Structures are given as C-alpha cells and as structure tokens.
UniProtKB/TrEMBL annotation:
Reaction it catalyzes: NAD(+) + NADPH = NADH + NADP(+)
Family: Belongs to the class-I pyridine nucleotide-disulfide oxidoreductase family.
Source species: Thalassotalea loyana
Residue ranges of every copy of the Pyridine nucleotide-disulphide oxidoreductase dimerisation domain listed in the record: 358-469
Keyword NADP among record annotations: yes
Cofactor binding: number and manner: Binds 1 FAD per subunit.
Stated name of the protein: Soluble pyridine nucleotide transhydrogenase
InterPro entries: Class-I_Pyr_Nuc-Dis_Oxidored, FAD/NAD-bd_sf, FAD/NAD-binding_dom, FAD/NAD-linked_Rdtase_dimer_sf, Pyr_nuc-diS_OxRdtase, Pyr_nucl-diS_OxRdtase_dimer, STH_gammaproteobact
Superkingdom in the source lineage: Bacteria
Gene designation: sthA
Binding site for FAD: E48, R49, Y50, K51, D52, V53, G54, G55, G56, C57
Keyword terms, alphabetized: Cytoplasm, FAD, Flavoprotein, NAD, NADP, Oxidoreductase
EC number in record: 1.6.1.1
Length: 478
C-alpha cells in the first residue's frame, strides 16, 4: 500500500469516527487499555456509568476490602501485643469505624486515577453505554440525556457483579452481597457468609477480627481448593482457631429474612441464624445492559465474553478485557490484559502475552500468596520435586514483628533445581512471594533454587525465609 493511500485512509477514519477507541468501564482493565492507547497518541474516550473512575476494583471490590482488612489486622496486632496491652483494655472497632478508613483510601485512589485520565487527555464520559452497532454506542447520561458516539475500535471492560439468585431478597436490610456490604449501616454481632471462595474467606477474616460471630458456608469440600493442600489446611485451621464456624459441602435451600435476624436453611437440613447474611457465591459478567446483539456479539450463561489471544471478540474491532472475559478475574491481570489489548489494537498482531504463572494474593488473616504449581499438581504429573520450608517463627524479623504465624514453601525439581511453585502463608505473604516469582521467571537456567543460598539477604528480613527454605530443601537432596 502506498504512503499516500495509508494517509488518506487514516484521514478518512479520523473524519468517520468521533474517537480512535472507546473503552467502556474505568476499572483496571479499562484504565490499562486507555493509558496504553493514549500514550500511543490515539484519541481515546472512556465511558463509565458511575460518577467516579476506578471501577468495581476501587469502589466495591479490591480496594475497600483490602483497606478494611488492613484496619482489622492492625487492631489484632495491637490487641495481641503485650507491650500495648499492659495498661489498657483491648481496643474494639466496629465495621462502621473501619469503613471510614476504606472511604478515605477510595477518595485518594479516585483522585489519583482521575489525574491519569486528565494528564493523558483521555475523555471521561459519565453515562451508561450500550451498542447501537459495531462502531456506535448510545450513552445515557445521569441527567437522562442521550448521546451517540462512534469509534473505530471499542473495548468492553465492564467488569462483573455479584451473582444474585432470584429467590433471595437482596432488598432486605439484613441481606447483603460483596458490593452492598459496604453500606452495612449497623454493627452486627453475628453474620452468615454463604460462599467460601476468596471473597467469602476474606470477609470471614475481617468480621471475625472485629469480634463478630461468623458462620462460613462452603459449597465445596475444602477451603479454596485451588491452593496447595497444606496452605488450604492452614487457612482452615486458623479460621477455626479464631472461632469461625466453617461448614463444608453445603447448599442453600432458602433464606428467611426477618425484622430481627436472618435464618439460612441448608439442603442438609441444618439451619443457622445471624444478624445478617453476606452472599458471596459467584459473579456474573456485566454484559446484560450492553445490547450486545446490536454489535453481533453474545455473552455466555455467566455473562462473559469469549476472546482470542489478542483479547479480540468475534467482531474484529471489538475487544474485551478484565472480569468480563472470566478467569483469572483479578485486578492485577485485568490491568495487564488492558495494556496487551491496546498493543494488539495498534499492531493488529501482537506477540506480547500475559505471564502464565499469575500469582495469587488472598488477603485473609493470615494472608496467603502463591505462584506456580501445587504439591498435588506436581504429584499428579509425576514430577520428581523436593520441598524446602521456612517457618516464620524461626525468623528474627518475624520474632521482632511478633508475626510468628506463617511459613514459606518452595517446590523445586530435584534434578534441575528449577523452582516449580512457591506457597506462602502469613503476614505480608502477598509481598514476600514476589521475591521468589522474580527468580522463577528467569530464563536460560536462571530459575534455580540455589540463587537463594548464593545471594546475601538483608538481615533481619522476612525475605530471609527464601534462604532458610532453600537450604532446608537442598539439604533433603541425596
Ligand atoms: C470483594 C472483592 C475483593 C477483591 N480483591 C481482589 C484482590 O485482592 N486482588 C485482585 O487482583 N483482585 C481482587 N478482586 C477482583 C477485582 O476487583 C476485579 O478482578 C477487577 O476489578 C476487574 O477489573 P475490570 O476492569 O474488569 O472491572 P471493574 O473494576 O469491575 O470495572 C468495571 C467498570 O465498568 C463500569 N460499567 C459496567 N457496565 C457499564 C456500562 N454499560 N456503561 C458504562 N460503564 C459500565 C462499572 O461501573 C465499573 O466501574 C476483588 C473483587 C471483589 C469483589
């Protein structure tokens, strides 16, 4: 194609469409996409139905839950430290108290993220978007006015919302899901959490840390079964030891919401009563209001869209990233998917890929993080691996911080010494894991457990757990 023709085509497109790209949704998926496109000089707009940017991640999901957890964790630390407790009674905080800190963090996040859009000249349109055709969106503004805008390329980054079964009355003031729990107006003395996935387990830790009686109902046989068994067992033990009542392998039959309590009836015949219910069982992609059919697109039964390895849907100019495409449904991955989608939108055939070993960070109390394969997976695949362990209680830094609960486990190939999986349990696990991840991702033989015994660590640090675990594992070899 001649240079002149390319220029003409570009000019035509510029005339034809209001924007080069429109992104629907301002969560991490939308932000990652729009920033990357804007930096490549594209004319970008982001449509967000909520008045502030940040997405479910900032307003209802990751950020508030982590801020709540941080306050609870500090409260527990204070109350269990004899230095502070010698002269004072235990401190007590309510859910409303810790919500104030979460709200302050949300405000700071919104300010920060709004600045990113402003500085990169991404137009922020507030309104509800839906498709008119493959290049045209209808936007219903908060004042009810309607606008049509067009773009050469469109990205769906609309996230997900908690799944709500029809037979449960979520308008009842004692029935919440993980979005509405942030508007919990009273301070419950007891709560039933239905669904013991990551969100359910994290909220079980938060409420229990506040002294609330927690019944955690798990529809599966074990907690977070995708984790290494030892880690999942440790979480079960610690939740149990802290007084959380966990019931495995249960299914809900019905919910009886009364003026003064909620009663959950289980199919097994059990029933339990509490001040409120937190429903944390499943999420659905936000696609129902997009009029996908107008763009010749269709979501699956869970509201999710299928994409290829370029994050492109079945329609060439429409891409999708984040929770709306399903696994892994993490803010961390959504942001990177957005950046990768933007590269694909610009280059048309991008070779950049999301890393295969996405780390898992679970902010229960104690915290959990892992990267790579579990012992079950390696055993199943008949990989000859060895295990190196370090217990936090034997580390000087953990003793100083009075953070004795926890351990680090490194799984490595007994012949090549390649690190195959790292599993961490305890305070700051989600930070600690990244040291191991950095070594695991080294190419050309750089992924080797011996790195940890050959290097010098700051002392005292939690990072030292890697040296201790590596020595422990290498000493098992014969
Ligand atoms: C309680 C909880 C805790 C979590 N903790 C973590 C964690 O610790 N770590 C982690 O990595 N992940 C965590 N997650 C998951 C994480 O929040 C999501 O994976 C992430 O937010 C997905 O990003 P996204 O950009 O796809 O969508 P979202 O962040 O959900 O953003 C989508 C945006 O699109 C907007 N939107 C939807 N439809 C329209 C429309 N038609 N028109 C205009 N705007 C629209 C929505 O208003 C929303 O703002 C947690 C989730 C929950 C619920």
């Amino acid at each position: 194609m001649s240079k002149k023709k390319v220029e003409n085509d570009a000019q035509q497109k510029a005339v034809q469409y209001d924007f080069d790209a429109i992104i629907i949704g301002s969560g991490p998926g939308g932000e990652g996409t729009s920033m990357e496109l804007a930096k490549k000089q594209k004319r970008v707009a982001i449509i967000e139905r909520y008045k502030d940017v940040g997405g479910g991640c900032t307003h209802w999901g990751t950020i508030p839950s982590k801020a709540l957890r941080q306050s609870v964790s500090r409260l527990i630390e204070y109350n269990s430290n004899p230095l502070f407790r010698r002269h004072e009674k235990a401190k007590h905080l309510t859910f409303s108290d810790i919500l104030k800190h979460a709200e302050a963090v949300i405000r700071k996040q919104v300010q920060l993220r709004s600045g990113f859009y402003d500085r990169n000249r991404v137009e922020h349109i507030v309104g509800e978007a839906s498709f008119i055709d493959e290049h045209t969106l209808k936007v219903v503004k908060p004042d009810g006015s309607v606008e049509q805008i067009t773009a050469e390329q469109i990205v769906i980054a609309t996230g997900s919302h908690p799944y709500r079964p029809d037979d449960i009355d979520f308008s009842h003031p004692r029935v919440y899901d993980s979005d509405t729990i942030l508007s919990l107006a009273h301070d419950p003395r007891s709560i039933i959490i239905y669904g013991a996935g990551v969100i359910g387990s994290e909220y079980a830790s938060i409420f229990r840390g506040l002294g609330v009686k927690v019944d955690l109902i798990n529809t599966r046989d074990r907690l977070l079964s995708f984790l290494d068994d030892e880690i999942s067992d440790s979480l079960s033990y610690h939740l149990w030891n802290n007084g959380v009542v966990i019931r495995h392998g249960e299914q809900i039959e019905r919910v009886e919401a009364n003026d003064d309590s909620v009663i959950v009836h289980l199919e097994s015949g059990k029933k339990m009563k509490a001040d409120c219910l937190l429903w944390a069982n499943g999420r659905t992609g936000n696609t129902a209001d997009l009029n996908l059919a107008n763009a010749n697109l269709e979501a699956d039964g869970r509201g999710q869209l299928k994409v290829n390895d370029q994050y492109q849907t079945s329609i060439e100019n429409i891409y999708a990233v984040g929770d709306v495409i399903g696994y892994p449904s993490l803010a961390s991955a959504a942001y990177d998917q957005g950046r990768l989608a933007a590269s694909a939108m610009i280059d048309h055939r991008s070779t950049a890929k999301l890393i295969s070993d996405i780390p898992t960070g679970i902010y229960t109390i104690p915290e959990i993080s892992s990267v790579g394969r579990t012992e079950q997976e390696l055993t199943e695949a008949k990989v000859p691996y060895e295990v190196g362990r370090a217990q936090f209680k034997h580390l000087a830094r953990a003793q100083i911080a009075n953070s004795l609960v926890g351990s680090l486990k490194i799984l490595f190939h007994r012949d090549t010494k390649e690190i195959l999986g790292i599993h961490c349990f305890g305070e700051n696990a989600a930070e600690i894991i990244h040291i191991g991840q950095a070594i695991m991702q080294q190419k050309n033989g750089g992924n080797n457990i011996e790195y940890f015994v050959e290097t010098t660590f700051n002392y005292p640090t939690m990072a030292e757990a890697f040296r201790v675990a590596a020595l422990n594992g290498l000493n098992r070899l014969f």
